[in-house]
Amino acid sequence: MLTGKTALVTGSTSGIGLGIAQVLARQGARLVLNGFGDAEAARKAVAEAGGHAVSEVLHHPADMSRPGDIADMMDFAAREAGRVDILVNNAGIQHVAAVEDFPVEKWDAIIAINLSSAFHTTRLALPAMRAADWGRIVNIASTHGLVASALKSAYVTAKHGLVGLTKTVALETATTGVTCNAICPGWVLTPLVQQQIDARAAKGVPKEQAERDLLGEKQPSLQFTTPEQLGELAAFLCSPAGINVRGVAWQVDGGWTAQ
């Protein structure tokens, strides 16, 4: 159980981040949410999952591409909820294009949000974690942190970098009560992925076939991972059983990287 711990989950007003926040709340953690989605709906969903009062689930609207916003968010979390015990770096965006056509501003934004933001939150969270000799940093990387796909140069680069950052932080905290690990999902059924399925179905493909076609391109299990399953893995990494799990890039990808 995580009673008495404060968890900050970036990019947590929907999708994977919201699912992780709900699981951590069920484990008893106080939550600080972040994201540009419907903050009140997310706060209520997390409060219901944890049996908390909505007022105990906080939200900060930091733009994760801006170091100043990130610093303000970390100060807010420490001031309003106590130190950040559990940091889940989940915020991310995507853009698809060939390298020679990739818009420079999209590259910069993806690197900032998917990679640099995790550096900034981590560097700001670590001093208090070290002082308490307890902390958990969970970076939501991707299968694309381990293998590449065409047309996703910025995303693949950022996620590979996030896995590298994870390993470095794990080594720097190896003799402490602070751990740092990455979770590497394959296809997860989030609203963004549902849009891709719906787009295929709109072309006359039955919904079930659209799902199988999408999964079959990469994920041998032909099953989506759920945000809740990723949350349960994050909770395990935060548990006493996870104390010597350090610097891993844990695939949850239905066999994608086993091929």
Largest sheet: 7 strands, parallel
Estimated share of beta-strand residues: 5-15%
Average pLDDT for all residues: 97
Looking at the structure, the CATH topology of the largest domain is Rossmann fold
CATH level 4 superfamily of the largest domain: NAD(P)-binding Rossmann-like Domain
One letter per element, helices H and strands E, the order comes to EHEHEHEHEHEHHHE
Which geometry do the CA atoms define? globular
Topology:
Blueprint lengths: L5 E4 L5 H12 L3 E5 L4 H12 L6 E4 L6 H15 L4 E4 L14 H29 L2 E6 L12 H20 L5 E8 L5 H11 L5 H10 L10 H12 L10 E4 L7
Parallel strand pairs: 1-2, 1-4, 2-3, 4-5, 5-6, 6-7
Give a short overview.
The protein has 259 residues and is α/β, with parallel strands linked by helices. It is built from eight helices and seven strands, in the order βαβαβαβαβαβαααβ.
Descriptive keywords:
7-stranded parallel beta sheet; 259 residues; 2 domains; alpha/beta; globular; Rossmann fold
Describe it.
This protein has 259 residues and is an alpha/beta fold. The protein folds into two domains: 210 residues, Rossmann fold; 35 residues, no CATH class. The chain has a seven-stranded parallel sheet, sandwiched between helices. Strand 1, helix 1 and strand 2 form a beta-alpha-beta unit. Helix 1 packs across helix 8. The longest helix is centred in the middle third of the chain and has 29 residues. It is globular. The model has no long low-confidence stretch (mean pLDDT 97).
